[in-house]
C-alpha cells in the first residue's frame, strides 16, 4: 500500500477543516444577572409577574443568537470537471450589529467557480450562519464568508452578495425603515473575468429583485 491509514486520515482532515468559534464558554447565570441590572438601570421594573423572568429570557435569547454549532467544510473531487458557476441564492441569516447589539437580518447569495474540488451545498448555508453568529458588521460578514470559501476550497473564483436590513438604522437614529444595505466580495475569475462577473451579479440581482 502506498498510503498508510494515518496518511489518508491526514489528507481527509485537510480536506475537511473544522470551523469553530474560539472563546470563553457561555455563562448564562452571569448573563441573566447582567440583563436584570441592565433593565433596572433603564428604569424597567423586573419584579412584576410579566417581567420577572425577562432577564432569563434575554440571556437565553442572546446566547442562542450568538451560538452556532461547529462543522466540517466537506469537499468532494470535481470528477466531472464542472466549470460553471455554482450559486446558492437567498440564504437567510440573522446577526447582531456590534455597535448597538441590535439585530440585522437578510439574505446572502454565495457562489464559486469550482477548481479541483466542489463543496457540499449545505455547507454554504452553514458558512453564512457560522460567521453571522457573532457581533458583526455587514462588510466584515461578507468578506469573512468569501475569504473562508476561497481559503478552504481553492476555487477559481468566489462571489458573495449580502443584502440586509439593520434595526440600528430602522428603529433608532435615522429611523430609515424599509432600507436595505448591499455588500459584495468578488475574488478570482468572478472578479477579473467581465463575463463571469456580469453573470454572477445578474443572478444575484435577479434574486434580490424577485424574492
UniProtKB/TrEMBL annotation:
Catalytic activity: GTP + H2O = 7,8-dihydroneopterin 3'-triphosphate + formate + H(+)
One Gene Ontology molecular-function label: GTP cyclohydrolase I activity
Cellular-component GO terms for this entry: cytoplasm
UniProt key word 4Fe-4S: no
Binding site for Zn(2+): 97, 100, 168
Domain GTP cyclohydrolase I: 32-204
InterPro entries found in the cross-reference section: GTP-CH-I_C/QueF, GTP-CH-I_N, GTP_CycHdrlase_I, GTP_CycHdrlase_I_CS, GTP_CycHdrlase_I_dom
Presence of the UniProt keyword DNA-binding in the record: no
Keywords, alphabetical: GTP-binding, Hydrolase, Metal-binding, Nucleotide-binding, One-carbon metabolism, Zinc
Subunit structure: Homopolymer.
NCBIfam families attached to this UniProt entry: PRK09347.1-2, PRK09347.1-3
Family (UniProt): Belongs to the GTP cyclohydrolase I family.
Protein name listed in UniProt: GTP cyclohydrolase 1
Record organism: Labedaea rhizosphaerae
Lineage of the species this protein comes from: Bacteria, Bacillati, Actinomycetota, Actinomycetes, Pseudonocardiales
Gene it is expressed from: folE
